[in-house]
Amino acid sequence: MEPTLRDRIEALIKADEGLRMKAYKDSRGIWTIGYGYNLEAHGYTPTQAETVRWTKEKAEREFDVCFDRCLASLDKNFPNWTTLTPARQAVAVSAMYQLGAAKVLQFAPTIKHITDHEYEDAAQHMEASAWGKQTPNRVKRLAAMMRTGEWL
Questions:
Q1: pLDDT tens track for 46-92
Q2: Chosen CATH of 5-15+61-148 out of 1.20.1070.10, 1.10.530.40, 3.40.50.2300, 6.10.140.1670
């Protein structure tokens, strides 16, 4: 059976995030676990977060909850996002998953370029952002997907 768009986007994000069963500090020093789950944003103190361990089942459940929240946030803030090509939709979900709504909403010029179908300009903004410097390989690939509208 052909994978659904959701399956493909989930696989993209999981590959980018990796899976960790023991809490670790991410590239910004934030305690994280599972598929990039920010423990501190979910109420854990750094001291509490340091000792957290998960099972694969717990990581999958939390991923599903976070993924669904990303979709709901995109629907709320960008009701036309599903009119993008599937690859560009994947970029939108990946950005929302990694950054969260508050940070995504700060990408006003990028969002305007996407809305205006100026995908090269949107990709350039992505690469030049703090996000692009934080996770350069990931953002470079997502920017290429934004440019071309094709999966990479």
A1: 999 999 999 999 999 999 999 999 999 999 999 999 999 999 999 99
A2: 1.10.530.40
